Amino acid sequence: KKYVKYVQCACMTAAESLTTRLPKAGETIIGHKFFVGFGGKGANQCVQSARLGAKTSLICKVGSDSFGNDYVDNLKKNGISTAFVGQTTDAATGTASIIVNSEGQNVIVIVPGANLLLNFEDLKRASDVICKAKVVVCQLEITPAVSLEALKMARASGVKTLFNPAPALADLDPQFYTYSDIFCCNETEAEILTGIPVGNLEDAEKLVIVTLGAEGCMMISGDEPIPKHVPAGKVRAVDTTGAGDSFVGALAFYLAYYPTLSMEEMIRKSNCVASVSVQALGTQSSYPYRKDLPQDLF
Ligand SMILES: Nc1ncnc2c1ncn2[C@@H]1O[C@H](COP(=O)(O)OP(=O)(O)OP(=O)(O)O)[C@@H](O)[C@H]1O
Ligand SMILES: [K+]
């Protein structure tokens, strides 16, 4: 199989301003630091997989603007195929404008922009990549119906599906459960999602993983219905931003390249990768490369 993994996703430019306090409505204040980074859950996950050595292709849409051009360069630098990264003049590249005060409190405005223009036609164009992948990973930062369609296309070709229901939707279409082999969310998302009728969970996915920050993860599967705790190692965390995406990206890598490992072992290794990411600042900037990790992870 040519593409061992494909992520269908959102790309966002994150512009962050640091100030002593958050401005009030109508107020202008002076901050002391500004930086721009690359984000979006799907893209983050894809970058982490690629840095572990996975062959990846991203299906997404950015604007025909400087943020979009920079994002395409960033993906290429990470060795990710951009054959299905569309650029549109109908919307701007997705952005997250973030203001953080000295207590670490923040206000964030996300404008999804071009991400919401990714459509069924784009999926059709990429169908060869989707259907020949080993693993397809989807999230909810694009139009949910498009994510669901990608999962269905993958499933129809026997491709393993990993779904990360983030950001969480209270009224998630129950079909997402049916078309996900692995359903991986964090505690907050699990809380929002538990409004789903239990009947849907029963005829659903083969495995549910809930990530628990420093505590690692809980896993529960059809084969092993008793929840199992897979702890993360003790590390000195400096910035946990993006840890969830590092975990999902790592898990996708192990599913594609080490399919004979037990799920527990894949989760243990993915915890190790994500726990490295919390020891560095930022999101993609904190994701480890294969060469910098203990070699017993491979
Ligand atoms: N303090 C920590 N120490 C060790 N590992 C951690 C720590 N925080 C997170 N991790 C690792 O990262 C994984 C994901 O963390 P978490 O559950 O906080 O995800 P998240 O809430 O989606 O994170 P974020 O939204 O900040 O990206 C955990 O399962 C664990 O493997
Ligand atoms: K980090």
From TrEMBL:
Its main location: cytoplasm. It is an enzyme of class 2 (transferase). The keyword Magnesium applies. One of its GO terms (biological process) is D-ribose catabolic process. It catalyses: D-ribose + ATP = D-ribose 5-phosphate + ADP + H(+). It is found in: Cytoplasm; Nucleus. Its cofactor is Mg(2+). GO terms for molecular function: ATP binding; identical protein binding; metal ion binding; ribokinase activity. The active site is at residue 245. ATP binds at residues 186, 211-216, 244-245, 271. Its EC number is 2.7.1.15. Catalyzes the phosphorylation of ribose at O-5 in a reaction requiring ATP and magnesium. The resulting D-ribose-5-phosphate can then be used either for sythesis of nucleotides, histidine, and tryptophan, or as a component of the pentose phosphate pathway. Belongs to the carbohydrate kinase pfkB family. Belongs to the carbohydrate kinase PfkB family. Ribokinase subfamily. This is Ribokinase. It comes from Taeniopygia guttata (Zebra finch).
